[in-house]
Every structure is written in C-alpha cells, then in structure tokens.
Amino acid sequence: MPPPIFIWHSNYRQIIKKCCIEYCGPQLKNPRMSISKLAGNLGYNDITAFNHGFKRWTGQSPSAFQKKILSE
Hints:
The protein is mainly α. It has five helices and no strands. The radius of gyration is 13 Å and the shape is globular.
C-alpha cells in the first residue's frame, strides 16, 4: 500500500507536525490529560519547548487549544 498522499509532497518537519497534531487533538479532548504528561508522551523533557512547538504548529498554546476543544 502506498504511503498517505500528504507524505508524497511533504518534508520531514511537515510530517512530524501533522503526526503531532493528529496525536495531540484526541489526547487534549480528555480533561484529565495534563499538558506536561502529553509533552512527556511525545518525548519532550522540557514543557516550555513543547509549548513553543505546539504554538508554532497550531497558532495557540496547548492549554488554549484544550479549552477550545472542551468548550465545543
């Protein structure tokens, strides 16, 4: 089976970004999921680095993203 179409026209950073966003979305729907635990699950030792990366990927902080998802 060929890889998903987004991989054909993507670079490494774009693929990592897409995978992280796809992983984080469902995780942040859980109101008991802490941002630090999510960061650790993705291999971040520093929550500040995760927050910075998440904001770069989505345009908002993980906590703002979680609040938005939980209010919908």
